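So, who can interpret the following?
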Amino acid sequence: MEKTLSFVKVDLERDVALLHKWQHQPYVIPFWKLDISFDAYKKHLEEFLADEHQTLYLGLIDGFPMSYWEAYWVKGDVVENCYEPHPADQGIHLLIGEEAFLGKGYALPLLRAIVHYQFQSQTTEKVIAEPDISNEKMIHVFEKCGFKKIKPIELPDKTGMLMYCHRETFERRWEDVFREAATS
């Protein structure tokens, strides 16, 4: 059965309780480290929503919110000091918040959709990711999407695996998927 994937921008009042709940999932805590009080998380989310270098999204399947996404411009992010970024490089963070959706194969099509969206910016030639180096499942999903491991990097909250997805690689890998979607 076909599922409908979509994204909506995070709204503080609508989404803070749900995102706070997801940050307390045992499989999220080791990688996001935001299992903090509701008030502290609300303040964190307010600050992230006010940060103009990123856009926060909920990922939905058939209209049901099940994932959280941070799409960001590398310029202005802490990761810009970890490599030689192009001015239009973008990055992505994600988590699957609803346990019922874990291990069901949804991460790859959602990641592919948001990376495709990021490449709609004609000046972006590369989307990066820096998942926690110990998060082998997410590293594998990024690789399946077209990302390549570059090097471990030290960030304030983790050791990440810097990964690149170049536009040409992504479009070559997924051109049939997006051609089919455009004609159906």
